[in-house]
Amino acid sequence: MAKRWNIKKKANETTVNKLAEELGIDKVLANLLVHRGINTFEEAKTFFRPQLKDLHNPFLMKDMDKAITRIETAIKNNEKILVYGDYDVDGTTAVALVYSFFKKYHPAQGVVDYYIPDRYAEGYGISFTGIDFAKENNFTLIIALDCGIKANDKIEYANKQHIDFIICDHHRPGETLPHAVAVLDPKRSDCTYPFDELCGCGVGFKLIQGYAQKNNISFEDLYEYLDLTAISIASDLVPVTGENRTLSYFGLKQINENPRKGIKAIFELANVKREITVNELVFIIGPRINAAGRLETGRNAVALLISDSHEIAKTSGASINVTNTARRVLDVDITAHALSMIDDDVVQIARKSTVLYHPEWHKGVIGIVASRLTEKYYRPTIVLTESNGKATGSARSVKDFDVYNAIESCADLLEQFGGHKYAAGLTMKLENVEAFQQRFEEVVSETIEDHMLVPEIEIDAELELKNITPKFYRVLKQFAPFGPDNMSPIFVTKNICDKGYVRIVGTNHLKMDVQPAQNPRGSFPAIAFGQANHFDDVLRKKFFTACYAIEENEFNGKTSLQLNVKDMKME
Prior knowledge:
The protein folds into three domains: 4-49 and 457-570, CATH 2.40.50.460; 58-220, inorganic pyrophosphatase (n-terminal core); 345-453, Diaminopimelate Epimerase, Chain A, domain 1. Helix 16 (366-377) links the parallel strand 7 and strand 8. It is built from 20 helices and 19 strands. The chain is an alpha/beta fold.
């Protein structure tokens, strides 16, 4: 699919020059900083050297005082506390974090336990079954993580059972908040917390930070939980700015220097020996933790993450690895089926949205399938299957289009829905599927702009190959951790060609050594994934313009810089 290039305008020249001089860095790098809202030496210092002391006071979050007071009361009275969370990465890491913290600081046997709902029997979020479990086992306080912000009916039911709830969520609230003891959600309209892009695990971290602060527990004692927060931030695709960047930065440090046994086991099983970055969290840790909740139970993921035995962690990690392999098989098969449903239907192909339903698709992988379809056709996508007599599904969106708002416009056809701008979940009666397909297409067609239906490559700056020096890359590397709103910079270079070594590797990738027309003596290795269609032109040494990221490539024990080419335009 053709891509549109969006080259950012150069930032204010005076600001860039001053910053470059003060920091002693290339003007291209200073330009990147200004584009990220970093205009002064002090702001750059904070960006390059995050400090945990810069984290916000947790009591700035609405209801934090109520939440801590209720937990203190529960501990004082030796009440049983149930830590309840969703079955995905964000939910299970949040549960592992909050459960292990309170187990450590309130260690009476059986007083703290955790609960992950069954994806198939109970569905997403707080369930009546979960509340019944709490009642039957004499839990009087439930701390809900990464869910609950729209569970008004469930909270009313719990109140009647004399079970209190503390909700720690980061999804958009509905018109009326649940009647819980405390509702921690920075997206509450009446919450003035300075940063509203925390993930569910991030809100859980603020909860334990608040408890520690109030109960004279050293902040250093919270370091061991930062790794879980970093995994959640990376996997849940929240913006890596502000507090998230700080938490992610120190979480990665913790993973590299002192990983918990469950995380170490996963990397050993995946034979990963390099420095752990956001990429490893997104592509190795995240899918495996998710696989447990998708195909079996999220409790397995929590058990792995809280394990204090290397042997148990290894066994648990191996089991989750097997589950992840099964997940991949399902993912491939269902994606192929879904693609054929679109390709064989001229009406589907012509639409500006995709809504597919099949009763036999596995509920655990439909979110992944929705992502695959979005990559292929680049339009808002919803994939539905049947579960417990209802149609339930996952939505994914494209850049700048708010799929949550589009789904909300169809609310009268839905039983429930929730999520974010770019990802959401929904449930409806089976008889409403066809009407929903039609309505959703109408809403998308009326509100989406044509340019949103074409994949965009956002290019940070133009760069000459001669400027890519070891010092340039050392500074560039410090822009990490990368993620939404702080992506790995993309550069563009004009008038380059292959030195004469181009070849196709794998099934459809180009391996090149590119050099500028003006200085053919210098060259850089480059890889262009999925772009073998340019092979003949590159082989004939035609000049082209390329946009790319700069990365390290490790081969035979040696590390070198290479260009990861995102797109090419022949001149």
